[in-house]
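Lab meeting prep.
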Amino acid sequence: MKRARQWRPGVKRAAPWLGLAAVVLGAVGIVDRWDRAEMVQPGASPAPVKPAARRPGAAAVPPPPMQVDPAQFVDLFPHQDWAPPPPPPPQVTDALPTPTQPPPLPFAIGALWLDNSGGFYAVLTAQGREFPVCVACRQSGFYREGDVLLGSYRIDKVTSQEVRFVYLPMKRLQQMSLGG
């Protein structure tokens, strides 16, 4: 049967602490020597280090801060993103291009007829409204040449074959065939 180890005061217990104390003291000595060394330009010989004369009770003066040029540093961990780059912003123009052609006529033929005296009548529909148009009638409620429909279309000429309109914002002539 094995005997259990007994704790004995002496060298075995103190050995790890002695090693740690030696490492700490060595590090303090290196740091102290490093603090006292002056910065040396490459290619120049180092000047001998003189111990600083200190008065008792005087505070130690810290060395001046090092001047560092940010252009010398390289970003070792730049930002990386797997998302595609955003699309370029749309080009903004100051003025919208003016259309060269007016919009198509909004009118459709609702009805066509001739009366007993030979008068021609047409009913045009647009935007849910009806516009009765006549060639040369004197009846009230009918639109004739010179009247404006939908605020933008002036009737220029009415015949049994077509109705001509002037689109007022652009002053452009448009015609609508009546199929006759």
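Slide two material, second protein:
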Amino acid sequence: MATLICPRGHDDPGDGSLCVHCGEYLRKAPPPDTGASAGRPAASPAPETCAEPGCGLELDESGCPLHGATVPLPHEREGGAGASWTGTSRDFGAPGLAVVFPWASYPLGVEPLVVGRSVGAAGELAERMLEHGRWTGRDYGNVSRSHAVVWSDAEGTWIRHLSTTNDTLVNGHALPHDEPRRLRAGDVLTFAKGLRAHVAAQPEGHTAGSS
């Protein structure tokens, strides 16, 4: 099994995929340099590029100059499969709306979409949020582990505020705790102080299982 190291140089980074000291994704240790290149300065790493298909522009501190804050997943940065990922497909109740975050669009369905920092509760959304924060320098630490939940059913699309420490706002208005609020296309959502998203209509013909 390949040895994993922390890109920031922390010793004993742990056995998982993230460094236990800084939270960065661990990388494979380079092979020992025993050939003719031994003693030469290490080559500069290749610049990070936008993961959008057909783009390839170098990322700056704000993300891609063309596509904005598009942050690739770790396996995308290594050139693996999944570079065209755009969201999470769901079983639809009342299809047509999605929550659009800076890094991805999430179609809404009867399966709840949990917004929060807990990977156990919010799954891939939490991973992408934390990764986006590291890439852009944005602080999402005041988003609760399970901050809010959004879903659609036969009667409409709804959001319920779960956090007991920080607000969830719809169009600037704080929601009461644990009371469903109906959402419509164009609504702006704010979770705590640092995370914003908006509700948007899905393209015509989008169905569960499409990308």
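Talking points for slide two:
The longest helix spans residues 124-136.
The mean pLDDT is 74.
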